[in-house]
Amino acid sequence: MEETKAVRPLSVCVFCGASPGDDPVYLEIAYQVGEMLGRRRHRLVYGAGGTGVMGAVARGAAEHGAPITGVIPSFLREREMSVEAPAQEMVLTKDLFERKQRMIGMADGFIVLPGGFGTLDELLEVVSMRALGVCAQPIVLVNPGSFWNPFVDLLKHLVKRGFAPSGDSFVLADGPLDAVRHLEQRNA
Ligand SMILES: C/C(=C\CNc1ncnc2c1ncn2[C@@H]1O[C@H](COP(=O)(O)O)[C@@H](O)[C@H]1O)CO
């Protein structure tokens, strides 16, 4: 993998699942996203957990020198950090809503990996904010195993039926390096 130093270190918010999913490729790609952030001197901002896809991205980042900020509601701390999470700056929030706001507020851009309800909630929040023009940060979906294809189809359906604006609120990346480069270019 390439080891180019980025021009400006970014705070990259990664939304992804607390579970591993059904395909090891999700964890492999998540680890590589974390690795790429470390190699290119960016900060990982994420949901603080040590489990599933979240744990994999954090381990990739930590093992490649990325500073990490984990944002988590107090009530989830025990459940999602029971599996050892790497050392990180911790931000405790009162609930999930505040967590999302804090993560969005810190981010220069978003990378979205496979996940469940929480990830979908976070993704839809930033996609709708961009559609309303109240969020300028770029959003990149990383798509291992074509995971996001049904989501992309659903959005096309909403546009076709006249319920959502056309126009690209996010891009699909070819892989971890492509995703990080996109955020760098949009922040140049
Ligand atoms: C319950 C509320 C909103 C909708 N649900 C969620 N909103 C935000 N974060 C959530 C929600 N459900 C789970 N989470 C957390 O997100 C992370 C990823 O979860 P995933 O389901 O594995 O993708 C994880 O930390 C979840 O605990 C009220 O605002």
TrEMBL record:
Pfam families: Lysine_decarbox (PF03641)
Top enzyme class: hydrolase
Entry EC number(s): 3.2.2.n1
Keyword entries, A-Z: Cytokinin biosynthesis, Hydrolase
Catalytic reaction(s) noted: N(6)-(dimethylallyl)adenosine 5'-phosphate + H2O = N(6)-dimethylallyladenine + D-ribose 5-phosphate; 9-ribosyl-trans-zeatin 5'-phosphate + H2O = trans-zeatin + D-ribose 5-phosphate
InterPro entries: LOG (IPR005269), LOG_fam (IPR031100)
Highest rank taxon of the organism: Bacteria
Keyword check for Hydrolase: yes
Family designation: Belongs to the LOG family.
Protein name in UniProt: Cytokinin riboside 5'-monophosphate phosphoribohydrolase
Organism encoding this protein: Amycolatopsis silviterrae
